[in-house]
Amino acid sequence: MDGILLMAYGTPDGISDIERYYTEILKGKKPTALQLEKLKKRYMAIKGGSPLLEITRSQTEKLQEALKKNGINAKVYYGMKYSKPYINEAVDKAKADGISNLVCLPLAPFYTAIGTGSYFNQVSESAERAGFKGKLHFIKSWCDEQGLAEAWIEKVSKLGIDKGWVMLFTAHSMPTSDADDLSIYRRQLINTANSVEKHFGCKWSLCFQSKADAPGKWIGPDAAWQIKELSKAGIKRLCIIPIGFISNNLETMYDVGIELLSLCKELGIEARISEMPNDSEGIINALYSVSAKAIHPPEA
Prior knowledge:
The protein is an alpha/beta fold.
């Protein structure tokens, strides 16, 4: 039997769980008091937590319905990297259910070794510990799925923008390293942004947000820097689209919805932020398409 494992980053279970969550992200090293205070402040600003877990659960249920509707006998699981239900728990369930082919699908459409690759590492390690003997099928990227662009077009269309607006696409910043060719990440983001932008005919640019509190060089330009540069160039109307994500989470709700929006107000820029596609029809269509192709590859 086939299985599909949807994977997301995770989110703390309330303010009291933030230290545990942050410690896991830091691979067992406890955060400093300042680091912990900053993260708690961000979560408190979005009423104590993000809806990522509920959205992921809904995406799982809707994908299961789509597969059933189209006659594909596959079971859909979901697992989180840093919170319950963990990825290893989903792999354990897949083994118990007798899954022989597990399609592993990160809920991040764009590939990076440090991001996407880390999910695959967790699956492989979990499968080895559990004695899972089935085949693991890793989906590196699904940014070319038509449903993804359609989902964003549908959300941006609700903002009522015209060609007088500038579109600012944002994605999660990543640390640069010899082990990770971030030109692939950037190119995938540009291609998807192009697919969305051409529907509106606006000028646009790509930038990166939510750089971690860690040393080293990170991919840019930084979103705040880019907004300041656009302001210097006389831009007064800005449509912000967090295209590097699909679901509401801390990075979209606080880093974009509070910090970047506040910056725009300070600079006298009228800003409109797109809703996230979450479990919309376009996203489910994209997840269904990539899952169906993995289970039943098209003939050459």
